[in-house]
Design goal:
Layout (H helix, E strand, L loop, with lengths): L14 H14 L12 H14 L6 E2 L2 E2 L6 H13 L2 H4 L2 H22 L1 H13 L1 H7 L5 H21 L3 H17 L10 H7 L17 H24 L2 H20 L10 H10 L3 H7 L1 H7 L4 H18 L13 H14 L2 H31 L12 H24 L5 H24 L6 H10 L6 E3 L5 H5 L4 E3 L6 H14 L4 E5 L13 E6 L2 E6 L17 E3 L9
Parallel strand pairs: 3-4, 3-5
Antiparallel strand pairs: 1-2, 4-8, 5-7, 6-7
């Protein structure tokens, strides 16, 4: 489809390849330079590690215990790269980085086919600057991969209904939804796009060729068939073995973590307006600002573009879907971001230059302010570190190391606004984002990594205990399993702390030479914490060692489920 003549200048072509290249470098910057960090990254990395070590991929385990909180596809991807590279520090970040790259390509290609290359470039550049996108693409949470599958699902539906017919892409969209569900339960979200498509698009294009035919029903069949590749073996093995642990895993992953978690969430409870008033203004800046500033243009363009109506209506439906659940987190709405960026990029390209001035001035001022703030923070860290907030005292040494780079970054952001003011707005924003993430990946991550791991605590543990000493843990992070060079015993992540404590008491009574590693803040009834031995700090907690001298004479209640003993196959997997 030819690019419409809007009278707006085409962005300078010479900058586009450089920004694309820097974006790719930024996506992979820092991989291999840090360990998985709490809260979620160590969990997924450890589950993937156990898949490779045990050869058991169908039922994910965490410390030897079944992990029923998330479907397995994301952990499969980490495990695949771990098996290929042999380096968990590389493997755990690769799926998100590749998913981010794939999402950018999908947005570019769809924008180019719908509205031309100018819109495609603007959409990609705006997406690169929006904080939530690269924040997730450079982490090892599930949501970047989920975002890729959902974007692929939307891409296939739009290719078929708005550009096609393209029955191959229609089929691909349903397969992508299935893979999204196998990543996280909400992977079906592209289905919501069928509502605005049914309202505004009876035909695929102006030729009158119908996009809605009887064979469209094969889409859901393809989705169910793809899901069956995972669900059928899992269900059959569960029924054959019929152990209480496997039955609990099946019921948890299929019911409790899906419909029950949506309707009766037990974590992250927020008011209905949380996304509109709290999450979107920060995580989707500057797109939310552009949306508000261009409301008149959107209203004017709304009747003329079915694609605009479909994309923005789908984003609204996704926000409504997540707002209806009492449990809300900022990352839940990430899958709607690429289509939102694409729709607003088209609106932006239709606005005459004089209509862009207010938005451009606001965003450039925000970028300049950000540069000045970073420069000021770096100057304080270098010249007057005692004036930093008290919470920064724990990272004084790291801040001193980071300050020179932070100073350079702040000056670079200010220079982008002041010295490159003739460049297109989105080029400036994307360049600022890419430089920031290059600094984070190559400088910040390696510097603060020692402060985000329990390496020092476990090293102190090894100095104090004999190699054959048995160590149990209460209320600990999966990072301890990743860094451990010895077997560790835990008492079920899924059990309440009181039950874990009773099980630990009985376990230590059975062999008094055993010891227990616990956070120092726990209020325990079965152990005398005055007998604790301090080991060090990790995850902002003091970690202490309890031996037989800390056992109280009695502990009310029977022991819970049997302890889980995790034996690392490959020691020092994260040196």
């Amino acid at each position: 489809m030819p690019y419409p003549d809007t009278g707006n200048p085409r962005p300078a072509a010479s900058w586009w390849p450089w920004i694309v290249a820097l974006t790719i470098v930024a996506l992979f910057a820092g991989i291999g330079l840090r360990a998985p960090w709490p809260a979620d990254e160590p969990r997924f990395a450890q589950v993937a590690r156990e898949m490779v070590d045990s050869g058991q991929w169908l039922f994910p385990t965490r410390g030897g215990e079944f992990y029923p909180d998330k479907p397995p596809l994301f952990m499969w991807l980490i495990a695949l790269f771990y098996g290929l590279t042999g380096q968990l520090k590389i493997a755990f970040l690769l799926p998100s980085a590749l998913a981010g790259l794939g999402t950018l390509w999908l947005v570019f290609d769809l924008g180019r086919r719908l509205w031309g290359e100018n819109v495609a470039r603007s959409a990609v550049l705006a997406l690169v600057f929006t904080p939530q996108f690269l924040l997730q693409a450079k982490g090892a949470q599930i949501d970047a991969v989920l975002c890729f599958w959902i974007t692929l699902g939307c891409y296939g539906l739009v290719r078929h209904f708005l550009i096609g017919p393209a029955w191959g892409w229609y089929a691909a969209s349903w397969v992508a939804m299935a893979l999204g569900i196998m990543t996280k339960g909400v992977g079906f979200l592209p289905v919501l796009m069928l509502i605005p498509l049914a309202v505004w698009r009876a035909c695929a294009d102006g030729s009158g060729r119908p996009a809605w035919r009887l064979r469209a029903w094969w889409g859901p069949v393809l989705m169910l068939g793809t899901l069956a590749l995972w669900l059928a073996p899992m269900w059959l093995v569960t029924e054959r073995v019929h152990s209480p642990e496997l039955l609990a895993y099946r019921d948890n992953i299929l019911f409790r973590q899906t419909a029950e978690r949506y309707a009766h969430a037990w974590h992250h409870i927020q008011p209905w307006h949380y996304y509109l008033t709290t999450a979107l203004p920060g995580m989707w800046f500057p797109l939310v600002a552009l949306f508000l500033l261009q409301m008149r243009s959107i209203k004017r363009l709304w009747p003329s573009s079915a694609a605009l109506r479909v994309l923005l209506s789908w984003v609204a439906l996704v926000l409504l879907f997540f707002s209806a659940s009492p449990g809300k987190r900022e990352v839940y709405i990430l899958p709607a971001l690429p289509m939102f960026a694409l729709a607003l990029a088209w609106v932006w390209e239709q606005v005459p230059l004089q209509g862009r001035r207010a938005a451009a001035l606001l965003l450039r001022a925000a970028l300049l302010l950000m540069g000045l703030l970073l420069t000021s923070l770096a100057a304080v860290a270098l010249l007057a570190p005692d004036r930093l907030p008290s919470r920064a005292a724990d990272y004084a040494e790291a801040l001193a190391t980071l300050a020179p780079g932070l100073l350079l970054l702040g000056l670079a952001l200010a220079g982008i606004v002041l010295l490159l003011r003739t460049r297109a707005l989105f080029e400036q924003l994307a360049l600022a984002s890419v430089l920031s993430w290059l600094y984070i990946g190559f400088w910040v991550w390696p510097t603060i990594d020692p402060h985000r791991t329990p390496r020092a605590v476990l090293q102190q543990l090894e100095r104090r205990l004999a190699p054959d000493a048995e160590v149990g843990m209460l209320d600990f992070k999966e990072q301890f399993l990743l860094f451990a060079d010895r077997p560790l015993v835990h008492f079920s992540y899924l059990a309440p702390l009181a039950e874990q404590e009773r099980s630990a008491w009985h376990w230590m009574r059975a062999a008094p030479a055993r010891v227990l590693l616990v956070p120092g803040h726990l209020a325990l009834r079965c152990f005398d914490l005055t007998q604790q031995r301090m080991l060090g700090q990790a995850h902002r907690r003091d970690w202490v060692l309890l031996d037989a001298a800390a056992l109280r004479a009695h502990c009310d209640g029977a022991a819970g489920r049997a302890p889980y003993r995790y034996v690392p196959v490959n020691k020092a997997v994260l040196p």
